[in-house]
Each structure stands twice: as C-alpha cells, then as structure tokens.
C-alpha cells in the first residue's frame, strides 16, 4: 500500500468502523469516547458503535436539539417501566436504523392513543419486538404489522385488556417471517386453536413459547391434519399436562430444546424424555406435588447430546436435615453425569447428598460446565484444598449450593485467614466465576461471599480508572 493510501485508510468509514469495533471489544467505551473526539469521520464511526444499543434514558439525557444525531444510530432501544414519559419527547425523532424495540409496562397517557407515542419506533428495518406488560391496542398492532413486514422475533407478555383472541390472531398471522414467538404471561385467554394451526404451517418458525394452551389432543389433531407440522421448530416452551410430553417428542421431530412447566405427575416425563436422544436442552418445572425419585433423573443419563439440564420443583427447597426425605446420592449423581460430557448447565432442584468426589467426577465428566446449581451442602473448602494446580471448573460462571459446613474459629483473625484462603482457591479453580451463592447461615460463608463480590467491584473500579487515565 502506498503512503498516501495508508494515510487515507483511517479516514474511510468502511475501514475505520471495523477497527473501532475491535477496540470496543477489548477496551470498552472509554477508548471509543476518546476516538469520537479525533475528527468528524471518527466521531461518526465511534458514536455509531457507542449508540448501537442503548437505554432510553441515555437518549433522554441528550439535549433535545442533538437527539436526532444519536437516534439515527440506534439499532436496539430499551424502555423500562420508569421510562414512559420519554415517548412524548421522542415522537418526532427518526429511528432509521432501529431493529430491536423493548417495552416494559407501557401505558398510554389518558386521552391519547398509544399509536401517537410509539409509531416513531416502527420502521421497515425493525425485526424484533418485545412487550413485557402494559396496554397494547389494536391500532398500534395494525401499524406495527403494516410497517414492519419483516419482523422475525415477537415477545408479548401481559398485553392488557384492549385486545381479543381474534385481534391477536390477525396480528400474528399477518407476519410471514416470524422465527421466534413467545406468548406467555397473562395471555392464555387470547390463545386459540386457530392460532396454533396457523403456527404449525409456518416454515420459518424455530422457537415457540405458547403458555398454557397446548394439549395432547390439540397437538395430535394438528399432526394428523397438517403433515410435517412445525417443520423448522427446534425449541418449545409450554405449560402442559404430563400426558402431552410423549406427544411432543413423537410429533415434533425437530425439537431439541424443551422448556416445560408440568401441571401433574400422572406420567413420568423424564422417562419419556430419556428415550429422545436428539434433545440438547431440557428445563422441567413441576407445578404440582411430585416425589422426584432417582429413577426419574437416571432416565436422562443416556442423553449424550444434552447441554442444559434444569429440574425445578414448585414446592421449593426441602429441609436437607429431614431423614425421611429421599436423597440423590453420590452413586446416583455419578451415574447421571458420567455420560453427559457436553453438559454446560446443570440445575437440580432435588435434595442431593454429595461428597467432594462427586464434584471431582463432575469436573472430569463435564469439562465445559458453565452453570451449576444444586440443593446440596458440600465441603467447598476441602474440594479446593485437595485440588491440583489446574482449575477444577475452568469455564464455570455460576455456582449455587445450599451451604458449606459451619466451622468454629478461635478468633476473628482465624476466620478472616480461612475465608481469604478459600477465596484465593476459588479464583484459581473457578477463574471465570461471576455468581457465587454458598448460603449465608454462618460467618465463613458470609465472609467468602463478601470477598468475592468486593473483588468484582474493585476490578470494575480499577478498569474504569485505567480508562480515565488513558483518555
């Protein structure tokens, strides 16, 4: 490259923007903020990255006469429940690049239609719309449908009282490009068989969370009347009777991810799922009384492709000291995890009586584990002390257990030294850990937890100071 070309390169947005994007990944916003002050070209490229995804209050803090400069760069915008008063000041702005809109608890002002406040966010580029509570109305839904023809992702929770089952059907069926649909809280009364039949014919629908409307009879009827129903569906979330589980695994041949709330224990759902080897992610929440036996869990041990396994019981944690409560033992646990080498998330909402050896086996069997939550009390200090030099869980980001054993200490200094030693070992053996919960029932657990989160705060503060010093 000639000298003149090499000097011109940093002035070309198509070259400068990817470079600054790499800087953003490594150094954060501080470096981009400095880059924005170099010249006009650098300002345009840097602010385009800084303002790509932003919260509504950040735009609200900009002087009104300059908001359009930044509004034209925003690709994802989030409004919380406290940001409702910002729609009016934003009504004349053009969000020409906006692709993702999130609204939490939206309600129009009395006497003014919702359309008046929200239409500025609707443009042909918008392809993701998330609505979490408030008052949707048919006028805005029609405007969104007619303007954003290429919407691919739609989430609606708690839509309010202004829409009907027919209007929801008309709204959803008006889009031909939807790939992900989540219709959950406070919306079951608006779901219909007609809507499910429509969705079953959609060639691009990959992810569906349909609340509590799905039944074994309805799904069987759809499978009979629509050959190859849900042809692209890979992920399903639903609140169902247990009898629906075998129908799901039999008729939805491409589904590999299940998020199911099960309302009864008439049928052993894990036993059915255990014979479905294609499954990669399983989340089951029992919203009923159920005696979760070891047979249930061990039925899942053959799912070698499993990456996420989450079992939750609506009854909540049991008293681990209760001698009558069936325990998930060392041998059971080891038998379960020994074949799940792809596991990245494990959450078992059943009481487990686990030794240090089981955690070592988990580390060896599931080396990619990122999240671990167990209703178990185990000796974290012994686990870390006996470990070698290599991290036990090199990728673990979340660890939650009931408690660690209580100890008596001769002095506060002894307590502090022990906690500091455990904390140091945590940093060595769980180097990526972001969330730690080991109970707060006694001083040692409390102090380890405090040290862990204080360390995170200090690291963030030091990083911020370094950015300020550089700039």
TrEMBL record:
Record GO cellular component, one term: SCF ubiquitin ligase complex
InterPro entries: LRR_dom_sf (IPR032675)
Biological process terms in GO annotation: SCF-dependent proteasomal ubiquitin-dependent protein catabolic process
Entry superkingdom: Eukaryota
Stated name of the protein: Uncharacterized protein
Organism, scientific name: Clonostachys solani
